[in-house]
Write a structure and sequence with these properties.
Strands 1-2 form a two-stranded antiparallel sheet. Helix 2 (about 30-40) packs antiparallel against helix 3 (about 45-65), helix 3 runs antiparallel to helix 8 (about 155-180) and helix 6 runs antiparallel to helix 8. It has helices at about 10-20, 30-40, 45-65, 85, 90-105, 120-130, 135-145, 155-180, 185-210, 215, 225, 230-235, 240-255, 265-275, and strands at about 75, 80. It has a single domain (about 10-275), classed as Farnesyl Diphosphate Synthase, CATH 1.10.600. It contains 14 helices and two strands, in the order H-H-H-E-E-H-H-H-H-H-H-H-H-H-H-H. The model has no long low-confidence stretch (mean pLDDT about 90).
Length: about 280
């Protein structure tokens, strides 16, 4: 079974649109976190690669929808025109829907990860579903939209960042650990790690929207300011925002103190986040 229908599969336009955004590049942080968390507790990437790929499909779905005129109205993503600029809004919406659906086809496919216990597959898929629902990513997006152009207190800002971005990072880490049979103390430590880096990532994204280079980032910069969005720099300033992100990264690495060198990829991912701000 292919992990994604071919671009030529009928109806061709929807599959072309799905491939266009999924294969456009990017850092692949979320599938990397699934794999790194699994390896940290003794798992192997080969056994859960379909699930890792599925998390990138989930992420790409969120990007396609986030770029739409009704939300952030962005023209550039991963160095290319956004999906709706190429295929139109209707197909872009459906491509996002299709990628999300395909993700759960992979996560729950009976034979793709047959070396993992069905119970662990169910736990991981459930984890991902909760993270992207109305009490997760979608909820964060709604509050983000409702907060545009309004004064926002720190608690609301943190809610937006944790739910809109952080929950998916945490779910990727937890899913990798669950699929590989993590023990309770390991899962608890990795959950804290995922929560810290998830919030740090969005704070850093806020910073880069002001200081970043469009060519390097591959997406529009300055859009948060244009839409008067609630961001850490707008509330706390750039320097305080950097300090907050750095503190969260340090805390995330501290969460891994009881893990051996198999958790080094997780440590390196966290350090990479901070490097993006300079």
């Amino acid at each position: 079974m292919k992990l994604l229908p071919g671009k030529e599969s009928y109806p061709q336009v929807i599959h072309e649109s799905m491939h266009y955004s999924l294969m456009a590049g990017g850092k692949r942080l979320r599938p990397s976190l699934v794999i790194a968390a699994a390896e940290a507790v003794g798992g192997t990437r080969e056994t859960l690669m379909p699930f890792a790929v599925a998390t990138e499909m989930v992420h790409t779905y969120t990007l396609i929808h986030d770029d739409l005129p009704a939300l952030d109205d962005d023209d550039l993503r991963r160095g290319k025109p956004t999906n709706h600029k190429v295929y139109g809004e209707a197909v872009a919406i459906l491509a996002g829907d299709a990628l999300l659906t395909q993700a759960f086809i992979l996560m729950t496919h009976a034979t793709l990860m047959d070396s993992i216990s069905p119970s662990n597959v169910l736990k991981a898929a459930h984890e991902m579903a909760e993270a992207i629902g109305s009490a997760g990513v979608i909820g964060g997006q709604v509050v983000d939209i409702e907060s545009e152009g309004k004064p926002v207190d720190p608690a609301t800002l943190e809610y937006i960042h944790i739910y809109k971005t952080g929950f998916l990072f945490r779910a990727c880490v937890r899913s990798g650990a669950l699929l590989s049979g993590a023990e309770t103390p390991q899962l608890e430590a990795l959950t804290r790690y995922g929560a810290h880096i998830g919030l740090a990532f969005q704070i850093i994204d806020d910073i880069l929207d002001i200081t970043g280079d469009e060519k390097m980032l591959g997406k529009d910069v300055g859009s948060d300011l244009d839409r008067d969005k609630a961001t850490y720099p707008s509330l706390f300033g750039l320097e305080k925002s950097r300090e907050k992100a750095e503190d969260l990264i340090e805390k995330s690495i501290d969460c891994l103190q009881d893990f051996d060198d198999r958790a080094d990829p997780l440590r390196e991912i966290a350090r990479f986040f901070v490097q993006r701000t300079y």
